[in-house]
Amino acid sequence: MRVLMCPPEYFSIDYEINPWMDKEKPVNGVLAQKQWEILKQSYSDLGVEVETVNPVEGLPDMVFTANAGLVQDKKAIVSNFKYIERKPESVYFQNWFKSNGFEVLTLDENELFEGQGEALVIGDNLIVGYGFRASLSSHEKIKRFLNREIVSVKLVDQRFYHLDTCFLPLNSTTALYFPRAFDEESRVKLQAIIPNLIEASEEEAVNFICNSVIVNDFIFMPSVSERLRSQIEGFGLKIKVIEVSEFKKSGGGVRCLTLNLD
Ligand code: ARG
After folding, report:
1. Which residue from 27, 64, 80, 116 has its CB within 8 A of the most atoms of ligand 1, so it is best to mutate?
2. N or C end: fewer C-beta atoms under 10 angstroms in the chain?
3. Looking at domain 2-260, which CATH architecture does it have?
4. Active site residue: 6, 166, 210, 256, which one?
């Protein structure tokens, strides 16, 4: 497994583009650095190859590499961010993909899409969200680029503005999700294709329980509840809770800090 991360050197809350961000609640930079290092080290300890992209001053959210783009095989669809504050990140991520041998695909101006944060694979399905950060118009293009069908789901709760904040595939037939983050039609779609859908409670969801990453037989989670601990362990996964309190202030967790490169 190979992932991309970005050091939190310039990470801060300079603007508010989701309900979690509050300029009055600043980041503790030293703690953020420490938490990020622990996540990175935890990947390395399990044999994950961690690549890094250079952080850029003035782009505090670059640390959330899950929004760099979406990678499949050697193709990378570079994100087209909704908010002006994050738009300048695209060129830096694009350059990284290019210089690391990826075929770079770009979207048109009105085709909004924020990468893996909005697109997750379960079994043979690629689930892609829209509603807050992504536009449905980007989905057509993604299908063509990746040459595969996708399942479009609409997000309706602004606290869960990216798919990876409310949906977590656990294996090819099982996922954890927060149902109220999706509109009715999307819930029905998910129920139809995923045999085993586990509901997260509101409390679990706001603790970003879905924003987790599976590495071999481990799962790195920003938090876990006793109820879900036993269910998740029942799937043969060992839970490692990784403290990411500073990144939560920006609306991100473990998953948001990590882009899968393979
Ligand atoms: N502050 C960032 C934003 O609002 C957080 C991004 C979190 N990323 C994610 N994949 N959910 O864009």
Report:
1. 64
2. C
3. 5-stranded Propeller (3.75)
4. 256
Query: Which residue's CA is minimally distant from atom 9 of ligand 1?
Result: 256
Ligand 1 centroid – CA 194 distance (Å): 26
Per-residue confidence at 169, pLDDT binned at 50, 70, 90? very high
| pLDDT band for position 73 (cuts 50, 70, 90) | very high
pLDDT tens column, 126-148: 999 999 999 999 999 999 999 99
Residue 107: the pLDDT is 98
Alpha-carbon torsion (107, 51, 98, 11), positive or negative = positive
**Which residue among 6, 162, 166, 210 is the active-site one?**
162
Q: What gap in Å lies between CA 3 and CA 106, rounded to an integer?
A: 21
Domain ranges of the chain: 2-260
Pocket flag, ligand 1, residue 61 (CB < 6 Å): yes
Residue 165 CB less than 6 A away from ligand 1: yes
